[in-house]
Amino acid sequence: MKLYLSVDMEGISGLPDETFVNSRMHNYERGRVLMTEEANWCIAEAFNNGCTEVTVNDSHSKMNNLLAEKLHPEAELITGDVKPFSMMQGLDESYSGAMFIGYHARASMPGVMSHSMIFGVRHFYINDKPVGELGLNAYLAGFYDVPVIMAAGDDCAAKEAEELIPNVTTAAVKQTISRTAVKCLSPLKAGQLLTEKTAYALKNKDKVKPLTPPERPVLGIEFANYGQAEWAHLMPGTEIIPGTTIVQFQAKDMPEAYQAMLVMTELAMRTTFC
């Protein structure tokens, strides 16, 4: 049985703010250690429950955060940038399930460091359904007929996963006080919770169905300002919805919609504010 882990950083226990997730800031090295430890709890329990292969995709920022020398020795690590499928690089039909570790809530919603890929995004939409990183990634997994069997992060990310994916197992390792303040489990208690939830998710994986995306999804991205929408609109095939900052793209399938999202958000980040 093959298991896929997409590991983000904002939802790791003990990480309340940017100083832990930004490589230029003073708490970042502490954040890397805690991120690697949480991944290892899940990996170890996966092997204890019948998994023969575990692929771990570093899914935060430049995607080179996990400490390879400290990672479980039997796991395979996908690390670095640029990846054609970003947070879901390497996933295909051969996997029995996927787990999202260290995840956060979507933009414009409560949650620790909540956002959707970049801070200029207010909302992502698939056929008018609002989604965040968790939702887009789950839809891409569904395209390959892979169910997302567990989501771990803060309480708001857990709630988002439960509303989107019936019967998904969730592990809330911290409770939101504000966007930059949390009530956390200790690393040991978080690890014990992740161990318990990983085992439960694997034993109950057949109760979770893949989140099947629309056959020809329409991707919508609502940006914070019109300049970002103008940059995103430089991608061929897009249109700006009149009177809004929403840019839409008609995709042939979910992988194309996902890559369109990556291109549009990268373009939007070129916007200046002077």
From TrEMBL:
It comes from the Bacteria. The keyword Glycoprotein does not apply. Coiled coil: none annotated. Pfam families: Peptidase_M55. Zn(2+) 1 binds at residues 8, 10. SUPFAM superfamilies: Dipeptide transport protein. Zn(2+) 2 binds at residues 8, 60, 104, 133. One of its GO terms (molecular function) is metal ion binding. Keywords: Metal-binding, Zinc. The active site is at residue 115. Gene3D superfamilies: Dipeptide transport protein. This is D-alanyl-aminopeptidase. The gene is dppA.
